[in-house]
Write a structure and sequence with these properties.
CATH class: Alpha Beta
CATH superfamily: SUI1-like domain
Order of helices and strands: HEEHEEHE
Radius of gyration: 15 Å
Distance between the termini: 45 Å
Amino acid sequence: MDICPKCGLPKQACVCEEIAKSEQRIQVTTIKKKFGKLVTLVSGIEKGIDIKKVAKDLKSELGCGGTIREGTIELQGDHRRKIKPLLVKLGFNEDSIASE
């Protein structure tokens, strides 16, 4: 049986990721890239969270492409209205998500 090094509980009962998700301060913004293309930026996801898994889940739910650059998830298109419910569905606290 594997033991979590942070909390000392078995991996199946580990709550480290849920605790980390409730402590995040996430900012959702959009920027214009080349040729007027809009990109949605999701920043503020810090240590303790698998950012690659979050990005993969968001891209599959939204049906868009994207990448991770310098700790920020970049999603192709304007998804400001759709991001918050998806992040809440992934386990993040609704009050900690701010969008422009």
